[in-house]
User: What shape does this take?
Amino acid sequence: MPNSPAHAYSDTLASFKTASGAAGQLFSLPRLARRFPNVARLPVSLRIVLESVLRNCDGQKVTPEHVAQLAGWQPTAPRVDEIPFVVARVVLQDFTGVPLLADLAAMRNVAASLGKNPKTIEPLVPVDLVVDHSVMIDHYGTKDALDLNMKLEFSRNRERYEFMKWGMQAFDTFGVVPPGFGIVHQVNLEYLARGVHRGKDGVYYPDSLVGTDSHTTMINGVGVVGWGVGGIEAEAGMLGQPVYFLTPDVVGFELTGRLREGVTATDLVLTVTEILRKYKVVGKFVEFFGEGTESLSVPDRATIANMAPEYGATMGFFPVDGKTVDYFRGTGRTAAEIEAFEAYWRAQGLFGVPRTGDIDYSAVVSLDLGTVSPSLAGPKRPQDRIEITHLSAKFTELFSKPVAENGFNQPAPKLAQTFKADNGIDVKNGDVLIAAITSCTNTSNPGVLLAAGLLAKKAVEAGLSVKPHIKTSLAPGSRIVTEYLQKAGLLPYLEKLGFNLAAYGCTTCIGNAGDLAPEFNKVIQEHDLVCAAVLSGNRNFEARIHPNLKANFLASPPLVVAYAIAGNVTRDLMTEPVGVGKQGRPVYLGDIWPSSDEIYQLMKYALDPDAFRDNYAQVAKKPGKLWDQIKGVTGQVYTWPASTYIAQPPFFESFTMTPPPLKAGVQRARIMALFGDSITTDHISPAGSFKETTPAGKYLVAHGVQKADFNSYGARRGNHDVMMRGTFANVRVKNLMLPARPDGSRVEGGFTLKDGEQTTIFDAAMAYIAEGTPSIIFAGEEYGTGSSRDWAAKGTQLLGIKAVVARSFERIHRSNLIGMGVLPLQFKPGVSWESLGLTGDETIDIALADDIRPQGDATMTITRPDGSTRAVTLTLRIDTAIEVAYYRHGGILPFVLRQLLAA
Assistant: This one.
């Protein structure tokens, strides 16, 4: 018991009272500061982590030394200590949640085969899975689009949902929010987050979590410490293992001033993303402070927190203050919960947004909100911000620039040409073919959604319209959004422009935009056109939105509507009309852009406590007829019926209670790929659709699945046979082993060279495995950017790739590689595979010391075809002692399973 006399810091247990006189207990940080005065100047986010370490100090997994180390944090000290962080709960989305559930089911199979109680495998903290990634925009622009899309969703995903139903009855602490309620991060903000929890021992503690989606950080907007991890790390956390991470730097981000008229929270977050990505905050906490921060609404804070993966930080944290309390009240939390929430933070001395000088940060970045301008980001990365004034010129410039400079390598005269599709519609480069109000980032924010509705109203009244061939969709993060758009009288105007309600889910942002008309696909491919999508999302990586749309721009919801009306991104909306209205009158963006006063007048519809309570009461009571019709098998051990969606994962084959002897390093490996910078987890493990001609498509066809029923890679993540074939199968990924074409362009797609012949990476991997030959990947900066995608690491492991050597790694993917027993290694500064002259025909040996040390050195020996060799020193990116243990056990899952079964 944490409050027993044996607790090393039992003197920090204190009482507090709520405003109505209710009493509670907490582990007091002010009392801890009597021993460690430094605590009073720690960043707020670190103090919340410190509270968890203090409360869970059991002398075994969490020791008094851990408390002392974190309490003594210094802003610029070397980062060598690891923190064992015990989280209050775990949140899953369904693309990552299904494979996680499959792993848990497979663990129960192992337990049963060893004569153990299968219930040994049971989450020890609450786990909520929100089904939000499975719906696609097949139907759009009609009143029945939502109903039709949901029926298709249930038809395609029945086997997955039956598996979830089994999980709900098999695991005591596993709950599901069914399809059609919203996006996981908005559901988390509005419903799952409780602010503070009360343990069985009567001790209150802050809400905290990890989630299997990189945008879990959205919850940082309400003062909750949490971030995205891979499902393999989340499994360990839910099964009693602390989440271990290196003590971080904490960058303070000071906001001053106020946003100008016409500037949205989306414009602000794109600016913050650009600043912090340049500042290099990977692996760091970012904590917002200052009077500008205080002025931001909670939805605006959540929008900024949501984009932490895009700026590379572990978190983008906002402290609790009066606006947080108001948000909890407005979203239907009980009076008792709100009282305990506010009283707890006041008792800990952590209520309110810090001002300059209150806290010691590792570094401070500043931004005057008054300098932020309306912006978009793209066409290939979320950190590439473009002020709306410059978008037309920037697209024109990139159209002819080389691919190496983020361009499209097209001849300049082609930009003005028009091509006719078979359906008679003229198509040009820069044409907007998808315009989507989508994603967790912006559909949680009533300010920008009401702005989109107001802009639509003004546009319709001015006589503007959207061409019917543009795929328009409205996919809010919550049912509440539809309710307040209806109450404000704005939904009919969005519908008149084609933005009919199409789904409650991730949709376009995750790659579930659905297909374009075949005629458009044909004309784009025949003429190599650079057409565009404009979406209110957070991700626009290559081929993520649609395989045939090369230019993808992130924008605020009102700008999505504006560009849908304009129809082409080469139109300069600051100087040219958005369109032609009644009586042939040109209508400019300024004519239809809503004022902040107009938006404010409608905000009263957005926070109605009764509406939130009524909506989320239906999760358990009235989840819907389609969900009620799903029937899962019962029992504590899953029986794995034949399915191309769900298959018993192979990660526990030949499992033994004692780990096999470690083969430290890699011997006689062949190179599978040579990649450049910014290889994303979308490049490694795409989430969207795929063709019959791909290895995954051929596999499904061979198993009797029609192309119309392929669904997506994301939906197939419960089947390793599909997913390993989809690894490195992104249609835009470029393996630089393959020689350049005469025009300098590169082969795109999941290909490699084996014995001098071009083949798919999957086929080469299977051949290497059959030969008993390990393989290796080389890459540049920021390897593994993007989503917390387990399968980017799982697929890598199943292809027999033993190590990845890169110039730098993104946080989650590096951790996932270790979690799957794959070595992450980093070049020393100034060294790259290019500087070493690698071409792909070399043989690679990597030697590790017998006593593997975190962040120690490893020796790579390159043997060229002529027999010459070269030795290179690399940095081992196994960063902590616990990660050494994971690697020795072959990954985090075998490590945790051995612990559970031994107990």
In short: The CA atoms of residues 347 and 451 lie 39 Å apart. DSSP finds 31 helices and 34 strands in the chain.
